[in-house]
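Final report, Chapter 2: Outcomes

The project's central promise was a pipeline that accepts a single protein chain and returns its three-dimensional structure in a standardized token representation, suitable for archiving and comparison. That pipeline is now operational. To close this chapter, we reproduce one record exactly as it appears in the project archive, with the input sequence first and the structure output second.
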Amino acid sequence: MTLGVLLGLVLSCLFLLSLWRQSSERRKLPPGPTPLPIIGNILQVDLKDISKSLKNLSKVYGPVFTLYLGRKPAVVLYGYESVKEALIDNGEEFAGRGSIPVFDKINKGLGIVFSNGRNWKAMRRFSLMALRNFGMGKRSIEDRVQEEARCLVEELRKTNGSPCDPTFILGCAPCNVICSIVFQNRFDYKDKDFLNLMNNLNKNVEILSTPWIQEKNNPKTEFTCENLIFSAGDLFAAGTETTSTTLRYSLLLLLKHPEVTAKVQKEIDHVIGRHRSPSMQDRSHMPYTDAVLHEIQRYIDLLPTSLPHAVTCDIKFRNYLIPKGTTVIASMSSVLHDDKEFPNPERFDPGHFLDENGKFKKSDYFVPFSTGKRICVGEGLARMELFLFLTTILQNFNLKSPVDLKDLDTSPVNNGFVSVPPEFQICFTPI
């Protein structure tokens, strides 16, 4: 027998073994498209528009189905009911973090966002406690955001009403809020150290913070210098990029819909006026503005599939057996764009969050920060920043587009892992 024939037999056996293992495994999992060996269902998923692919597959296989992204299965949850049943009703069992190889290599399972089990619980609990100690949820944090909003306005004034790309400035503002929490100090937008920090964030490089080492000699503790560094890095990355992208998308939508912007400014004039800074107390008296902010987050669908989850134990879910460690993909798009809860979900309409009397209307389908045990740690801060930054901008400036409104495209340029708005120019004209 020649070496070539032997190699062919070995490869054939491995191929058949792979098929048998997949077939045996698939019998217990939810239904889904037949995977190819090694690559799975990759060819059936548009990586530039994952949400659309999941929507099409859900029409064939239902609200709970299985995809093979490579050789490993991932259970997809599509629609409010399946997402709620898994992430809320069975929150503990679905609280694991699914594997993302590139982040696994960088983060080594440390920090908050990409960690699991005891380490995740300890670091999440510690981070929430630390943020509260630094003033999260208190007036002191609001003061910091208000101060940053005023600094943001001053930077925008320097544009002198000329067309500009707001990306950099809108990235500086939320980053400076995190700096003021962690370092107890904000930075000038041209400060070299601050620019270096922004550059490191953008390159996803490790960010060093104060190393808390009360327990550096305890080999079993989660509070290692390295773990705390990654946790601080997670706060910077999550607290800067997501908020700045949402702010940028917000301005694009407000440019595209001047009638909405005018109504928000009218409410600002009525409730706040021109001579004091907006505060969080104002929000409850501004139902239209509140609805606009919710609709922006619903419409842009920033993280269409959130971050992958994983089941922490073998679990029977809707008569299927999902083995421990299986990746779970929860489609946030399917909840935020549910056409029964939000009629014409592809249309930007603040009325989605207003009742017939014009009062703000809450919705359980509003899940831009995910839901369940893995809901975003910084949700409260992000909501505060969006309200205070945008109302302060609209209190001080009219927004003008240097191009015709019909030429403004609000479709994301990338709708894979993150919905990124297209580049655009905007003029901030002082009021």
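Archive annotation: The chain is about 45% helix and 10% strand.
This record, like all others produced under the grant, will remain available to the consortium after the project formally closes.
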